[in-house]
């Protein structure tokens, strides 16, 4: 079989799978219902795009710079612009920090392996997991205690308010009595004679 015919058959099969039997997606671009091939649909979309951009210089300038924008948006863009010497200088400048990070990671790995290898640690973890029921009971007791303390605080607050109101009333009563006693004392004093 001829490779060109094989390629043509594969493209036709792809068009059939992508566009369906009626080619409605490509036909909607053109505005008619006849079946379009993928190449015709792409060509027609390109023509529509070009006609939409004609007369719009700013949009056209952006479209012409899309490849440049894609290059700037590439995550490896910075690496591609740096020379090997610049990368080496950055690594050497951060050497102390990188060595500290490596040392910390090695220490953490040793600690994890020691804990996992230590049978006592494993049995301790299993014992801790067995104590979860007791922890739940203690949590409930603590919650009840906190609620009891809150109730006692409210009662104490009420008692302080009552005490303050009683002291206030007694103070007011003593002030009234003091005024009354002072007035009686003033009345009971002998009056001085004006002739003397």
**Large-scale geometry:** elongated
* Order of SSEs: HHHHHHHHHH
- How many helical stretches? 10
* Overall average pLDDT: 81
Global Rg: 47 Å
* Cα end-to-end separation: 155 Å
Proportion of residues in extended strands: under 5%
Query: Major sheet: size, sense and barrel closure?
Result: none
- Helix/strand class: mainly alpha
Give the uncertain stretches in residue-range form: none
What share of residues is helical? Answer: over 70%
Please report the total strand number as a whole number: 0
Pfam families: Dynactin_p22 (PF07426)
InterPro entries: DCTN3
GO biological process, one term: cytoskeleton-dependent cytokinesis
Can you walk through the features of this model?
The protein has 196 residues and is mainly alpha-helical. Among the domains are: 37-81, no CATH class; 133-184. Helices cover 83% and strands 0% of the residues. The chain contains ten helices and no strands. It has helices at 3-19, 24-30, 38-53, 57-64, 66-73, 77-81, 84-93, 95-117, 119-130, 132-188. α2 packs parallel to α3 (38-53). The longest helix is centred in the C-terminal third of the chain and has 57 residues, at 132-188. InterPro entries: DCTN3 (IPR009991). It holds the Pfam family Dynactin_p22. One of its GO terms (biological process) is cytoskeleton-dependent cytokinesis.
């Amino acid at each position: 079989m001829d490779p060109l015919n094989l390629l043509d058959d594969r493209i036709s099969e792809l068009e059939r799978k992508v566009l369906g039997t009626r080619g409605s997606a490509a036909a909607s671009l053109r505005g008619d219902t006849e079946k379009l091939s993928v190449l015709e649909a792409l060509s027609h979309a390109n023509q529509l795009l070009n006609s939409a951009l004609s007369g719009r210089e700013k949009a056209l300038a952006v479209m012409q710079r899309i490849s440049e924008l894609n290059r700037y948006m590439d995550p490896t863009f910075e690496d591609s612009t740096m020379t090997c010497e610049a990368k080496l200088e950055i690594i050497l400048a951060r050497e102390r920090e990188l060595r500290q990070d490596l040392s910390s990671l090695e220490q953490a790995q040793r600690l994890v392996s020691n804990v996992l290898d230590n049978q006592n640690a494993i049995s301790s973890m299993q014992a801790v997991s067995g104590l979860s029921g007791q922890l739940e009971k203690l949590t409930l007791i603590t919650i009840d205690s906190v609620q009891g303390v809150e109730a006692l605080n409210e009662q104490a607050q009420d008692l302080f308010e009552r005490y303050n109101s009683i002291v206030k009333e007694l103070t007011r009563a003593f002030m009234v009595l003091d005024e009354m006693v002072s007035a009686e004392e003033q009345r009971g004093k002998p009056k001085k004679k004006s002739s003397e």
